[in-house]
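hi! just following up on the protien thing from before. the input was this:
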Amino acid sequence: MNSQPAPILLKAKTTYPALKETLIKRDRLLTAMTAGLQGRLTLVCAPAGFGKTTLLTQWAHSQQQAPAWLSLDELDNDLVRFWRYVVHALTAVVPEAVAQRIAPLIETLPNVSINTFLDALLNELYILSETAVLMLDDYQRIRNEHIHSSLSYFIDYLPQPLHVLIASRNELPFPTVHWLAREEYTAIDVSQLQFTPSETALFFQAMSSPGLSPDQIEQLTLRTEGWVTALKLIMLNLRAGTPVSDYVLGFNGNYRDVADYLFHEVVSRLPADIYHFLLQTSVLDRMDAILCHAVTQETNSVQLLEQLKNLNLFMVPLDEQNNWFRYHHLFAQYLQELAKKNHPELWYRANRLASTCLAERSFMEEAIHHAIAAEDFELMQTHLERHLPTVLNKGEVSTLLYWFQCIPADTATSPELALFYAFVLVLTGQLGQAEQELERMERIGTTMEQTERWEQLQSGILFVRSNLVFLNGDFDRWFAFAEGILDRILPANPTYYNFNYNTTEPLVRRTAIGLKGALSQDTETIGNLFMGVLESHGWQESLLNLYVKQSLYEGYYEWNRLEQCRELIPVLKRAAMSCHIPGLLIPLCLTEARIHLAEGRSQLAHDVIDEALLACKKMDTHWIDALRACKVRFYVQDGQISQAKKEMARLGLTTKDKPTFNKEFEFISLCRLLGKQRKETEALRLLEQLWPQSEREQLYSSLVEIANLQALLEAQRGQRSAALLYVHKALVIGESFGYIRSFLDEGAAMAELLSAYLSSDDTALSSSSRVSEAYVRMLLDLFPKLSKPYLTPAPLLDIQLTRRESDLLRLIQQGASNKQIAAALALTEGTVRIYLSRLYEKLGVSSRTQALAASQDLSLLKNIPLMPD
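and the predicted 3d structure came back as:
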């Protein structure tokens, strides 16, 4: 596969911590959490150190069905990354059938809106039959408002078996009162998390601390307000010989002051080697022996980690194998502030070493995070340049923007990286800021020596600016830029050209690079010019060039320019097969098959899809589903309803399912089958649910197809006025973009509706957006050409067969199958189909029978020598 590597997902983030042997079981809280499952949300909210994570861990281990767990950190303030981890966590605990359906959904982001993604995710989760719990720990680390609103939306529409459990230091930043009013919200706050005197007694007993009287335990409970972390610290200090009375009588202050005091009491008594180890490793959000060794530059990390565990010194295990750990957040915060204040050089050095080690282990996000903490922006930029293509491919542009914005304004930045910053600003729609960045770079360019590097920078600026202007819709300005690009070299970095623009859609016209079906003369001209620029500079095999070419190919089909489609097929097919990108291959095959169908070659259309299915065996399921959905459509069009039903059964869709945007192509295929079965009401109900989703995504091609199908179904059940209103909706969009095939492919029933539309005097039509009579008549004039069973034959005297075509015709006469023909001629079956297609086209036929009949009429067979046995 010529694609970016799959993103590394840290297992430690989606694995709940192991239980400690000395844990006090808090039955009253565990019971409250279990009871909360009857609703949709439970919040455990308290300041640091009150045992939120410990309580969640204890509850998770008490469940027969493991919950989905996600430990959140600062890097999760990216909408795509956040939901990628949520889906990853859920796939580990839901049934395999559900996991297979939700796993591909994350690939739809950021190409679709977050609500469309969530609708699809929720719909797939609605088939859950048993309780499932999603646990989000440390939610206070999330500051992104888009994540807050998306999580609120997700909770609003949770299916009954699913429950969300959140632990946070702060109240949730979105409303919860409506869930509370419906008794669907459970809150466990600091007053409930505080240890009672009996729990405090059990705690000190489990810790084997010096004997305390009941009165002392009660006093400590009151003084600490049941704060678990304070009790742990007191226990450690009591072991060191501090008199109990010091705590019973002198314990006061807020949590932060108390924690600092007590941590100081503990840490000040530690041996020098352990103290130094703690300071160095405090920079790490998570650690294992290898990382600790890199940061400390010592070889005894395994032994020191073991000592810390034995001392019970606020170590939280992150996996069952006890390989990865983190410090308790309060303890880590204390150590970090101590290191920054008293040992700044140690702080910076440890972060630099951590950054280098993590990068060597391909944990690039964390490596960049530590380089920023070390204020080593040269190292940070080195990591960023290496990791930028991967992050772009994952769609985590918010993370990229955050990293770029961490670089101080007075820090020297390479022009190449600054250009990428401008490119990211364009991709995220911050066009004004992108313009300012490009202007700044142009000023820098005027001071540079005019070397090859300068030429690269100038052409890169022009390339990024051309993207900016295109997204602004300022096509006149784009043409001005295009002339400049032709005279210059393009950026040499392949990241600009090998971004995979389609990871989910059956047709490229449904994606942003396909402008979601918004066709125009300007976009065609720009597409051709852009391809010319790319190809003239050696980027003809780049994904960008191929996607632009595929977009034009699909546009030509929609405009009924089939000859231009045929010219592009061999070039695109060769490239798509060689780079193994399904986002190119599947749309290519679907469009090629539709061309064969438009020209009356039904069997060839099926052959193309069957060949694609063979090529897709190792690809993700959703690509195979799109191909099967296409076969359903072809069977329906051929009137082979039993075959269509068998193919639909393989897709597993029924009228009981809620249609979602990510499966729109498949659901529309189901609606076409339902229409043939005279189940118009069920089909219309599904289409009515699909329309607002496509409208939200501004997917024009789908809106036209849905409206056309609604019109045909209404007409089929005798609702003429409703049918004409739907036709009108389709025509309004269709005329804007010059759509043709979307109407022609619907056949004679659509021709009748268009004729009725022209003669209609319905005031509802005349009072809405106008559709020109010329456009409708143009469509109607094209319909008769489609009624012929095959293409018009060439004049008799012009038919000349090649030797290969003669061999094919003789084998057809002998009744040979494609497989037998391939063996006889030493070809692949795919190549045989191509030769047959060309032979059929030359004879003006669409089947073997017609080819034999035409050859007899033209007296071709008598001149063909027999094939040798």
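The longest helix spans residues 452-471.
The chain has 44 helices and seven strands.
cheers
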